[in-house]
Amino acid sequence: MAYQRKTWKRFMETILSQLPNYVTKYPPSDQIVLNEFLSVLQSYEVDTQAARKQLLEIFQRFNNKYRNSEKFWSLPFLWFVESYFQNASNLLSVASFHADDFYEYFVKQLRGDSDTHGVFQLVSKGTPLTDFAWEQLQYACNRLSVPLTSEELHVLEIVHTLCMEIGIKALNQSYIKNYFLNRAKSPTLSRKLIGLFSRLDSNWLLYFYTPAFGLELLFFHFQLSESTFLEDIIDFHDPTNTILCYSNIYWIRGFHNTYCGILFVPTKFVESLRKYLQQCERLGQLILYELTKIDTSHLSVSLFLYQATKGWRNPTQTDWRRLVPILKTQYPRKKRIKHFSFYLSPPFNKFWHHNQSHNPSQIIALYCKIPRRFSFQELPLGSHNSQITMRLSKPEIKLLRELYLQKTLHICFLSLRLISEFSLDNYWITLPKMPLDQLSRLLAWLPSSYLYLTETNIHIWTFLTSKLAQWLRTDLEWSVMPIVENHNPKNLVFDWYDLKTQQWKAPLVLTT
To answer: What is the pTM of this model?
Structure first.
């Protein structure tokens, strides 16, 4: 490995000496991005703890800078770099003394292989930063070099089950470690957890029932006129639009100026938003195809198609032909095969509201404060780790437990690296309402999906392969739209909540 490490370092030296000559052939604005990228690469040597810490900070600064910029959404190069630096960070954070895995991964994406051109080949050929060859490289950099073992796969299945069964203790790092230490067959397994979860970019999710906190979810789908920009309708970057800035907005690929997604709106202003968008339509600024209130939602996670030591299995045409009649049957059998590796969040309690609490503002303060995702090392309970950036007080832990017991909060678990390896392509699916037991036959094929149920339809945000997308369109005749995230939603801000009225403040766009 020492010989390989020297080879990897020599290749890095070659890249850093030659690439600047090719960068000068790019347009000035692209040169700025590429030179900043090369500047990060300059810090590749991580033979000391101080150097590792510094590089982790550099990775984070670069990704944070561009992830929050308008440039990010138009440059597939930045999509690749975000994945590349994030995966490198995950490997480096748990690297051995010699950091062999990190060096191997870091160099491989620059050098490429027989299947995919790396950074060096693409830049030396002058590949535009807008070219989707960078998206193909993003796919390549998200593949695991070694598939999961059966033991590792079993660990993920156990954590999924724990999240469904043990309440907020699922956010307790010590509890999870001790569980594997005391009950797992392998005594060394608990020591491997941090490395496994980091390599897979595993996250513990807090999944809230939004209406319990005075907010409604609305599915929207509209097309802007040629002379209208999205900011002309709603500026999702303007904090005076309060909770609307927390919305999930997607551009529909292949359709000019067409968007869809989920709007977060204070309950009191749902009709105001509807009237506002209808007014925009009358003024010729947009065509409003749909604006529908979401009744409830679910999150599904599945490892059903993942095979230990092999990776993701692609469903065959025969598998699909067996599934289609089940999805088309109007009155399917209620009983279905239960997959141990498939997880669907349970129904929320629709009858509890934060105003029923003796101190509603404390509930909202916690709702705004607490992140929606935690890595294993960031779990907020049962850890004295100095890396923890957010700690909860005893009253906050009590409130969190109350929200869980009231069934307005579910705790879920997913591994982002596995999802990215399955597919990086986001889709929005719309289908007629059907029993979830019936739909689960399809969901078991998808590594992660958000389901939004309206009065008549089901909307699904998910990741699909191109073959699955085509099958859903042709054989089931469902609406299947490829989408790209349009902006990075802002974090919730407690100042958006009015303490006097105990309600969310009005977005500015709905008051002028």
So the answer is: 0.91
